[in-house]
Amino acid sequence: MPREIERIADQRQKGVSLVPSASVYMTGDWAARHFHHADPEVIEQIIALSTPFIASTNIQAVQLKRWDYAETALPLRSPFIEVGVTHPLLVGGDAFLHADDPAGRTRIESAFLSGVAAAERLFEKLRI
Ligand SMILES: Cc1cc2nc3c(=O)[nH]c(=O)nc-3n(C[C@H](O)[C@H](O)[C@H](O)COP(=O)(O)OP(=O)(O)OC[C@H]3O[C@@H](n4cnc5c(N)ncnc54)[C@H](O)[C@@H]3O)c2cc1C
């Protein structure tokens, strides 16, 4: 995978499209550097970088989405934080990573792992 691309997802394989439809996610660093460039220029570069995986002759339509705030810049190295004083109150989410998180960035997997860790801690506190 070129280092500019974070991942490529096949929306048909995910079951949300009847036709082959690829979403190409650029890295946060690449996206930030190209955020204010014109659409045709950005699309052309993404297609060029995707060529090893998607033949340009197979592309029938493209859409460019710019997702500001899609990724936390400084994730916490803790799966949740405890902020409750009189009652248990835990805060978690995709920006709360386990200390040994291999990816080191926000994603749906980190949100799930954070939720599981926070729930386990809550059960422990409430002795359920
Ligand atoms: C545009 C985009 C597309 C994505 N696509 C994918 C994908 O295809 N596959 C994938 O695996 N991941 C994808 N992700 C990543 C994934 O969506 C996130 O990692 C995940 O949703 C994070 O879960 P979370 O529970 O931490 O936060 P969120 O899902 O953002 O949930 C936070 C919730 O808190 C609520 N909230 C906020 N403030 C308050 C408040 N003051 N009071 C009460 N409620 C509040 C919000 O309304 C929201 O419901 C995508 C992310 C973005 C931005």
From TrEMBL:
InterPro entries: FAD/NAD-bd_sf. It comes from the Bacteria. This is Amine oxidase domain-containing protein.
